[in-house]
C-alpha cells in the first residue's frame, strides 16, 4: 500500500536543487522521509542518481546502518514490481550492488575516508590507527606532565601567579583541568590555534571588551523589557485590587523604560544605578489578599533579579574595569600559551605513536579540503562535483568544525534535517545556533519562489497520543522562548496529532488518559529520596499493569507489559541500582544498561587489588583484599586475629610506639617467620599460601608481559574458574578476560610495567573513562527499562516515567574560576595575591550569565526529549518537602502570561519548570500529591492482606472426603527445604542420594582386611596424594620403590601414606595406556591435577529438594587433560569391586558434576570421563 504523506513531508521529499532545512518535530517520521527522498532520487525516470553519488552523514553508526537497511529494503520491494527485462529493473539491481559502498556513514567515518584517499596531503603516516579513549586519557596527562615540569623549572612570574591564583596547596590538578577544558573548546573550532590567537589579540585591543559589552547590553535590554512587562502587569493588578502600591510601580516602570533605551555599557550602568527600591508602601486592610501577594511577588522577583543578577554582577567603575582587564590580560595570555603548547605537543605525541583521535580526523579532513587562505581546495571541489546531493541528519547537533566540512563540500544541494528543540549535546560542543541561523533566515517552502534556501517544518507527530502531545505543548508554550531555548515555542513549532489512537474503556481496562505529575511529599521522613520515588513508581506500575491497554504492533489493543515501560533519569549513575532494588522487591523485573560500572565490578576490583599488592605489598587495603578473597579465604575474624596477635606480641616486647607497624604485610611476615607464637595452624597455612603466590607473581611480573601475568594469576589461583561458577559467572568471566585485553592494549601502545599499568587504570578512573558490564537482557525480554534521557533519544515507549525531576541542575561549569565560551572567549576570577582577595571579574560574570542562559536552554531541550519519548502514557515524578513550600516562589505567576526570562532564570530543576507552569498545564497534566504515609499504608495493606489470606485459609473447613483426607495425610513435598543447606560437597550429595561413600568402601589389602575404622580412608588419601605429586619421567627413571622413598624424604608424602601404597597397584597403573596419555600431557603442560571448584546449582536439579534455591557445590577433581577444544576428565577410585558397572553406577553422578564444573570453568566440552580403578587395574569410560 502506498504511504500517504502530509503536504510538508511531500515538500521535503520533492524539493530539489536547493539548500533545504527540514525542522522535524519529535515523531514526525524524518528517517522515513530521508529514505523516501533518496529512493525517489535514485529511481527517478528523468534524472536518476546513483546511490554512490549521494553523501549521507548521520549522527551515529547505528543510524547509518539503519538507513542503509531501509534503503536496501525499499529497493528490493521496488525491484519486485519491475519486469526483469526493463531498464528500471537493471538500474535498481545496480543500486543494490552499490549500497554497500555508498557514502552513508557518520561524519567521522567520512573524514576517515577523505584522509585515507588523500593521505599524501597531510603529515599523518598511512599506517595510522584510531586511538581508543583510554589510550588518549593516558597520553594527555603524560604530555601535560612534561609541559608542567618545564614550566616549574623555568619558574617564570606569569606561570607562578597563575599557579598560586587558581590551584590548591600541593596540587596543580585544577589548573590542569582548566588547560584540558580550554583545549576541548579550541578543538571544536575549525582552526584551534587561530581561535586562541584571536582571544589573546582581543586583549591588546578593545575587541574583547566590545564583545562582552555588546552581549550584555543586548541581553540586559531584553531583561529590561521583561521587567517592564512585569511592572505593567503589577500596575494592572493594583488597579484591579485598588492597591496602594501603584505609584511605586509607576516610578519603577519609568526606570525600566530608561534601561530599555541603553545603547552601551556606560548608559547601562547609569540606568541600573538609578534603581534604589524604596519601601513598596502599604495597602488597606480590605485589599484583596491574593492580588496583594501577586503584586508583591512580582516586585520581589524583579527586585532580586536587578540587585543580585544585574547590579552586583555587571556594575563596575572605570578604575575597577581597568584593573580587572590588566589582570586578565596577563592571566589569560599565560594560560593560552600553555594550551597552545599542549595542542602542538599532544599532536606531535600522537604523530610519533602513529595514532589519531576523532577530533584529529575532522581537522585533518579540513586540512585536505581547504587551502591555507581558507579557500576550497581542488580535492573539495572534486568532492562537490561528485556528490549530487548531500544529506545531514541530526543537523541541530553539528559543531563549527563539522559546519566547515559541510561548507567545503557544498554543491548547492544540501538537505539538512533536525530539530533544534532536541539539541542536547552541548557537552560535545554541539552548536544549535547553526541550525537556528538557517531556521530564522530560510524561506518557508509554501512561500518560496526562486529562493535557493528553503525550510520545511514538519509539525505532525505520528508517535504519541493527543493527551501526551497536549501536555508537552502546554508546558513548552509557557517555558521555551528564543531567549531561553533558542526558539519560540509557538504554533509553528508545536506538536500536532498525526496518529490514530482509539479510546477504550471496558471490563476494568482502558486506554491512557492525561499526563500525570506525581509529587511525593517527603516532609521530615529520612529515607533516601530515590528509594521513596522508586516505591511510588512501583505502586503506579502495578496499578497500570492491571488496568492499562496499549496499542500492539498490528494495531490491536492488549494489556500493558513490563517491557512497554521505561523510566528516564537525567543521570542513572548512583540512581539505577536503588530503583532496580525497589522494583525487584515489588516483583517488578527491571534493568538498566549503563556505560559505567566495570571498575566497580567485584571481580575486577579484586584483581586490580592483587596487582597493586604485587607491585607494593605494603598497600594495606589491597593486600587485605587479596587475603580476604576466595583465593585465600581469610575470614574477617582471621584478619582480626592476625592484628590482635601482632599487637599483643609488640606490647610484650614493650617496643617504642614508633616501631610498631600497622602494615598487614609486616604482621603476616612476623607470623610466618615465627616471631609470634601464633596458634592457629589453618590461618597460618592460608597466610603462607598467600605469600607464596604473591612472591611468585612478583617474581614473574619482572619479566612476563602483563597480559601473560594476568592469565598466569587466573590459572594458578583458579580465580577465573571461581568467578565462572558464581551467579552471572559468564559476565564475571568476560570482565576478567576484558582486563587481559586492556593489558594487551596497554602494552600494544608502547607502555610496559606493572606500576605504570596500575597508574593507567587509575587515570581511566580519574577521567571517568569507565566501561559498562555486558548486557544480558534482550530487547524482547519483559522487563522495565531504566535509562538516561540522552540514551533514550530516538527511542519510543508506550509508557514513559520521567523521574528525578526534583534533582538540581549541574551548575559547576560556570562556577569555576576560569570559564570559556566559543564566542566570548575566556575569562577568569580577579585574584589579588598580595591581600588574598578574590572576586569574579565583570567579563567572567558576562560569560557566567551566557552559560546560565545556554544551560537552561539545554535543560529545556533535554526535558522536551524525555517527554516526547512517550507514545501513550506520560508520567512525571518528583520528591518534594511539602507542597506549600514547593509552590511558594511561583505564587505571583498568573494564567495569562508566558514565563519571563526572570522566572526561568530563577529555576534550578525540571520540577521548577513544571511548578512555574502549573496554571497553564492544569488541564493536560494531572497533579497528584502523594504523602509518605500513603506508601507506608500501602505496604501495611499488603501485609494485612497476606495475613487475612492466611487466616482465611486456616479457618476453612475441610470437606469430609476420603481423597482429601489422603491428601492431608500425604507427607509435605518440600520437607527437605526446611533444613536445606546452602553448601554441599559432591560427597555430601552422594550421601544424600544414598550413594556409598568412597571412603567407606576403599580398597582393602587382600591378605588382611583392616579393622581400623578410618584406615581405608587414609589409604585412599595416600593413593590420591601420590597421584597428585607423581612425576612420570622421574618415577620411570628411578624405579617406583626409589621414587616413593624420594617423595617421602622430600616430605611430599607422609610415612603413613608411604606404608599404605601398594607398589603392585602403582606398577599396573604405570604400565597402562592412561598413564602414557597422562605422561605425554604432563610434558606438554596440559595435565591439571587436584582442581578445586565451587559451582551454583538449583536444589531441585540436584534432587536434594524441590526448591529453586541455589546450592553451592564444592569438590576436587583428581585430574584432567585440557586440549585446545576439549577436555578429558580422570578420577581415581580405590573401591574394592569386582565389576566395572558397579563403579559406573556408583560414581556417574559425581563425574557428571565434575564434567559440568569443568565445562563452566574452561568453556570447553568434556569429551571423555575416565575412572582408573586400582582394584580392577584398568581404566573405565564412564
**Shape by Cα distribution:** globular
Separation of the first and last Cα atoms: 63 Å
Helix share bin: 40-55%
Q: Give the radius of gyration.
A: 38 Å
Strand percentage: 5-15%
Q: Structural class, judged by helices and strands? A: alpha/beta
> Strand order, biggest sheet?
3-2-6-7-1-9-8
- Please count the beta strands (DSSP E, at least 2 residues each): 31
Unreliable stretches: 991-1013
Mean residue pLDDT: 86
Largest sheet, in brief, is:
7 strands, parallel
Number of helices: 48
Structure commentary:
- The protein has 1182 residues and is of the alpha/beta class.
- It is 53% helix and 13% strand.
- It contains 48 helices and 31 strands.
- The strands form eight sheets. Strands 3-2-6-7-1-9-8 form a seven-stranded parallel beta sheet, sandwiched between helices. A seven-stranded parallel beta sheet has the order 18-19-17-20-24-14-25. Strands 26, 27, 28, 29, 30 and 31 form a six-stranded mixed beta sheet that branches.
- α27 (706-717) packs antiparallel against α29 (729-748).
- The chain is globular, with a radius of gyration of 38 Å.
- Residues 991-1013 have low confidence and may be disordered.
